[in-house]
Design a protein that fits this description.
With 368 residues, this protein is of the alpha+beta class. The protein folds into three domains: 93 residues, 2-Layer Sandwich (TATA-Binding Protein), CATH 3.30.310; 118 residues, Translation factors (Elongation Factor Tu (Ef-tu), domain 3), CATH 2.40.30.10; 117 residues, Nucleotide-binding domain of ferredoxin-NADP reductase (FNR) module (Rossmann fold). It contains six helices and 20 strands. A hairpin with a 4-residue loop joins strand 13 and strand 14.
């Protein structure tokens, strides 16, 4: 399962708790790097009375050495936060303890969880081709409201292993991690943007790019039928940031995210958006403020991931020098991602909070 990103912030009131005792041959050699690594996920670390303590937004973990193992106490302000901190702690201990595999069994709150709380099953309600290579699938579910915010822009779609008679859904193991009835044929996880949603109707739309060399996500979009059940995990962040002036750049894989962000911009927003697609037939009617200039970039026969259209467009853009706050968002193939990120950090000198450049795919590599 995708690891959660735990935001930095210390909260005092914790109403849910769980504990486990882990036998480690060299506890400090495992727990110290685990805590150090967790700082990258927004944790705050300290040592108190010989115990290492990690604090996050809505959660806390304490690692205490004892004669018969390391006692791990976790607390959280919600059952879902408790689940996430258990996952983060257990997965990192197992990772840093390799090749050994210490036994982790949680006791306390959360033991009643049958499925991960960020997992739900949606049902296909409609399938529509909005361009020759972009298919919109509408889903219905009981809890689509959790995807309503712009900080909940993404989710993971579970693409089932071919040949299974029935879909596999995750359960929660004693160690707090997701487990599968047939681990060798567990679903593939593919990240997608929540293109639009109607909370009142319980409807959520996802746009899928259709490929000739279909990967798991594209294959799901090509074969799914109305009424089918699809598992999703999320939400995930990486969305819109407040700014005066924006620059968006992306190929068709990032088009759903750019389209949704454009729709959610304030009326006074200014900036540019560059969207690379195969040809004019793939351009879509988008909604955006009058101060945003949208430019479609056409490959016209060139294979996706082989042109410099996006990086050239970004490099040619001049940022405002009138004191306006600036934000750049880009999503594209790995090679273009590296060049655009380097340009933002190097030539433009943007700070971390002023840009987000992500690789949505890697040409020649279909792995997760």
């Amino acid at each position: 399962m995708t690891r959660p990103k735990l935001e930095r912030k210390v909260l005092i009131m914790m109403t849910f708790s769980a504990q486990t005792r882990v036998a480690l041959s060299d506890p400090e050699a495992i727990i110290a790097p685990v805590c150090e690594h967790m700082l990258e996920h927004g944790g705050v670390s300290r040592i108190e009375d010989g115990a290492r303590i990690l604090e996050f937004s809505g959660a806390r973990a304490r690692f205490s050495p004892t004669d018969d193992g390391t006692l791990v106490d976790v607390e959280a302000d919600s059952l879902e936060s408790l689940y996430f901190v258990r996952v983060a702690v257990a997965s990192h201990i197992l990772e840093f303890a390799e090749p050994a595999a210490p036994t982790i069994v949680w006791r306390g709150d959360g033991g009643e969880l049958a499925r991960p709380p960020n997992f739900q099953i949606l049902r296909v309600a409609n399938v529509q081709d909005i361009t020759p290579h972009m298919r919109r699938i509408s889903f219905r579910g009981d809890n689509v409201a959790r995807f309503a915010g712009m900080n909940a822009l993404h989710l993971n779609v579970l693409c089932q292993h071919p040949g299974l008679a029935a879909p596999q859904w995750p359960t929660v193991g004693g160690n707090g991690l997701a487990q599968w009835e047939d681990p060798a044929r567990r679903p593939s996880f593919r990240k997608y943007t929540v293109r639009s949603l109607d909370v009142a109707a319980g409807r959520l739309d996802i746009d899928f790019v259709l490929h000739t060399d279909a990967g798991p996500g594209s294959a799901l979009a090509e074969t799914t039928q109305i009424g089918a059940e699809i598992g999703v995990v999320g939400p995930g962040g990486g969305g819109l940031v407040d700014a005066d002036w924006y620059l968006f750049a992306g190929d068709e894989t990032a088009l759903p995210a750019i389209a949704r962000m454009l729709e959610c911009l304030p009326a006074q927003a200014r900036g540019k958006a560059f969207i690379e697609v195969a040809d004019k037939s793939e351009a879509q009617q988008l909604k955006f403020p009058a101060g945003i200039e949208v430019t479609w970039l056409y490959r016209n026969g060139a294979a996706a991931g082989t042109t410099s259209l996006l990086i050239d467009a970004v490099r040619s853009s001049i940022l405002p020098d009138d004191g306006s706050s600036v934000y750049i968002w880009a999503g594209c193939e790995f090679a273009a991602f590296r060049q655009i990120r380097s340009h933002c950090r190097g030539e433009l000198g943007l700070k971390k909070e002023q840009h987000l450049v992500v690789s949505y795919w890697n040409r020649g590599n279909s792995s997760e």
